[in-house]
């Protein structure tokens, strides 16, 4: 007759639990980065919509679209106060229209571009996370 009952977990059970915890942590860390990149992309998209509306207003006021490379000239020329270090902004303009673009500086989508044109007004996103 045995007086002492076995207590505790076996080594196999502990290893299985540790593997499951590691898997959950890995999935949550990967998903967290996508959420942050999505927020950065949304901010870039909203800035481009602001630039789009300001360019349309500038065309009505002056008869031409503003050509600009960077937020400094855009803010000065369109009367804006945009601040965003995550993207570099550029507007290429001609007599009949313009294309405003924002290129991601760093992060998972570094080098990818969001753009909007005078004709369509639809924002085109270059990164799947956006």
What is the element string, with H for helices and E for strands? HEHEEEE
The number of distinct helices, counting runs of at least 4 residues, comes to 2
Question: Structural class of the helix and strand makeup?
Answer: alpha+beta
Strand content: 15-25%
Total beta strands: 5
CATH architecture of the domain at 50-130: 2-Layer Sandwich
- Give the CATH class of the domain at 50-130: Alpha Beta
Helix content: 40-55%
Please give the radius of gyration in angstroms: 25 Å
Uncertain spans: none
Terminal CA distance reads 67 Å
Features:
single chain; 130 residues; alpha+beta; Pantoate--beta-alanine Ligase, Chain: A,domain 2; 5-stranded antiparallel beta sheet; 5 strands; rod-shaped
Topology readout:
Layout: H1 11-62, E1 68-69, H2 71-78, E2 87-93, E3 98-104, E4 113-117, E5 124-125
Antiparallel strand pairs: 1-2, 2-3, 3-4, 4-5
Notes on the structure:
- 46% of the residues lie in helices and 18% in strands.
- It is α+β, with helices and mostly antiparallel strands.
- The chain has a domain at 50-130: Pantoate--beta-alanine Ligase, Chain: A,domain 2 (2-Layer Sandwich), CATH 3.30.1300.
- The chain has a five-stranded antiparallel sheet with strand order 1-2-3-4-5, covered by helices on one side.
- The chain is rod-shaped, with a radius of gyration of 25 Å.
């Amino acid at each position: 007759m045995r007086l002492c009952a076995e207590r505790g977990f076996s080594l196999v059970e502990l290893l299985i639990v540790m593997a499951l915890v590691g898997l959950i942590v890995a999935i949550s860390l990967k998903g967290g980065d996508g959420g942050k990149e999505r927020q950065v992309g949304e901010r870039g998209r909203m800035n481009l919509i602001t630039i789009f509306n300001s360019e349309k207003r500038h065309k009505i006021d002056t008869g031409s679209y503003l050509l600009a490379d960077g937020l400094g000239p855009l803010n000065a020329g369109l009367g804006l106060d945009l601040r965003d270090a995550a993207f570099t902004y550029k507007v290429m303009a001609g007599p009949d229209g313009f294309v405003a673009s924002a290129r991601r500086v760093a992060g998972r989508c570094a080098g990818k571009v969001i753009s909007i044109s005078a004709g369509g007004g639809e924002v085109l996103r270059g990164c799947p996370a956006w």
